[in-house]
Amino acid sequence: MSLHQETAPGVPHVTQILADWAVNIKGADIPTEVRREGLRTFVNWTGCAVGGARHETVDRALAAVRPFSGKATSTVLGRPDRLDALHAALLNGISSHVLDYDDTHLKTIIHPAGPVASALLALAEMRPISGYDLLTALIVGMEAECRIGNCVYPHHYDRGWHITGTAGVFGAAAAVGKAIGLSSRQVRWAFGIAATQSSGLREMFGTMTKSFHPGRAAQNGMFAALLAEADYDSSERAIEAPRGFANVMSDKQDYAEIVDDLGTRWEAALNSYKPFACGIVIHPAIDGCIQLREELGDKVKAIRSVTLKTHPLVLELTGKRAPKSGLEGKFSVYHAAAAALLRGDGGPMAFTNEMVNEADIIALRDTITATADPACHEASVDIDITFEDGSTATKHVERAIGSRDVPLTDAQIDRKFVNQSVPVVGKAVTEGLLKTAWNLEQLADAAEVARASIPDNEEKAAAE
Amino acid sequence: MSLHQETAPGVPHVTQILADWAVNIKGADIPTEVRREGLRTFVNWTGCAVGGARHETVDRALAAVRPFSGKATSTVLGRPDRLDALHAALLNGISSHVLDYDDTHLKTIIHPAGPVASALLALAEMRPISGYDLLTALIVGMEAECRIGNCVYPHHYDRGWHITGTAGVFGAAAAVGKAIGLSSRQVRWAFGIAATQSSGLREMFGTMTKSFHPGRAAQNGMFAALLAEADYDSSERAIEAPRGFANVMSDKQDYAEIVDDLGTRWEAALNSYKPFACGIVIHPAIDGCIQLREELGDKVKAIRSVTLKTHPLVLELTGKRAPKSGLEGKFSVYHAAAAALLRGDGGPMAFTNEMVNEADIIALRDTITATADPACHEASVDIDITFEDGSTATKHVERAIGSRDVPLTDAQIDRKFVNQSVPVVGKAVTEGLLKTAWNLEQLADAAEVARASIPDNEEKAAAE
Known about the structure:
2 copies of one chain form a homodimer. The first copy, chain A, is an alpha+beta fold and 464 residues long.
């Protein structure tokens, strides 16, 4: 084996093909319906970033970052704070994911917008770009990220990698590379510098470091593109090389997922938006429990036990029996089901530190058992309730709300946005921001969206 | 499997034990000879950072970084440029490694100083620390880094990870955590945030992105400690958890290497310093070829062919037949041997873009064959030369200069320092810097070392 081992026979030049595609595609080459889904992604991401902006996770990251920030060009969405563009990308990536309420590419469980949109909007405040071009770059970045994820999923995820971080850094690199007009060779270098920073362990789930992953992926991917712009060179085959990303970090490499049907099959258009503020795998249980609550009324207070029959991933990812914090609660199907039955809620308020410690929630949670059924679809669940008087109730959810088959409508995205944003920036800013975000493709300066999120009028005036 | 799977039976609480040790150890607990080796490490690292400071790799990284730098507290060693401490750590980590001339923990091929010293000295310019305490923190960081490396080496490296990056980030986190006085719980968090950033692919060898690894490890490990200081929480068992660093990134986990004999067995004291500006594995060949040149004189111009019998890692790591750049030349035992035979040199000048393209070097290089002998020690080589007249010469190197058995003397470290530093910052600055570096333990303010490296007097005056 020499330093530069030959790539195995039959392996396509994935890094180069993807870089060429990213450089050459034009906004008008992207079908209208794909651009529309990209816009829905952008609006949903903006709401999530504002919604998470006052979380203590963001406060603490900001405290650590502040002494090191460069020129304060870029907004921490939903706050009066501004940072240099790299640090703003980090912070917005954290806040958009901290409530586990963002978007999901269901095939890979990647949350595509966090790493990509956080990088692009922070950059837009420093190096102006139109809203139309930002949306093009966002779709290009998400497409790269999801295709690279498809290439290695599920083996890569099963090994313990948080794929939103590991694949997200490529998405941010591609998006920023597109936005700043890198050459194909520079995009290859950017992919190399991204690959060598690809990281994020699932061990961090349930801690503040989980939401660090999309933030750092945004920052690192942006930095990869900026280094490549300065002709900082790297491997030009970092995805497929014998010691590249796919071989080192996964037992599975399906390169056709990356290069086949580029420009006709759109992974970015498969994005979905969470109706509930936690891992997508427990959404069917929450959906079913909320429906049961609506049907049962006060009878939910007389439950003796609950049985959930779920997809195996539910227990693998969210099998925490006794969560102690709101963040841990997002990884407990037991807490989530109990909160849905007793409060009718799966939003951010169902996953606060207080809610996971309320006595009635804990009592009901402890009566719930869950079994994994490999035959169960990821978007399905069966719920069986036994009441104290021996009577029973059941609920079958065929496809949960927010799944590909039952996507959120634009109106539901609006409602989710408003519910998150109003408590953080108030009603007037929320209304203006929502309108500006939907209007992205008409904006001569995409940075208007960031400025529209600033809560305080004086700060906002100063920024404009 | 639940979110927080139990750690496997028998696995010690490695992260906690190492964090407790790092927090509790005092400078005086470190044996004199270990402190002395730490000082030699620091001096050698300082010379390497200054020696690499004008490399185009550093120029390009600096161009990319500059628009994002925060308050310019910290020196890019050997240059008039200053950056915020995080970015200075990145740049100094790059420059100290870019010539492949730094230090080596031979058991793991980790280059320990780059990630750790680069973080500490940049921090010292922002948050003052005595030279004595900086040396203590340096040794603590190197010890953590090398022990974590031992735990997973060689399987981790064989999988394709550049261990200086992947283990180095833990060293930087431990060192900065020690320097700023984190609690044990905060150091555990810092290890968690370090683990989730652990990255760096061997695919990058031969490009500018190789030296990015120690730089980014320094920056990321420092940031991990600073986030932990702000109570940004993380897993507290990131090294040994089922989905932690060792399990996700290696097939081998020998936790005893991390926790056994802490405070009595010192991996940091096993550090060695390269006499030649390239990967350690080709040092025996260069040593032997330089000896042969001294013995043969002009007869080296009449060589028909050369055969090298080497350790297998030599061909795996440095088997590049036709390097085109200086950086690639460092990964060609053929080029290195030819340059040693024809120029008598293994220093930075043997690995310039010009040198790898000189006609006589290329001609001799192409006559060299190398064979891997598993019985050959890593510090040994056998060289057989056949001349055009049919006569022969041989050289057996039992242990190469710079290996553990033939360490560089202090005087040789001085000579190496001067040879690197004078072309970058001149004779006067070099002499002052060398003296200041050796005097580290007596400095009330460790940052004096950084200031002593600034080449231009006016800039230097402004910084003081």
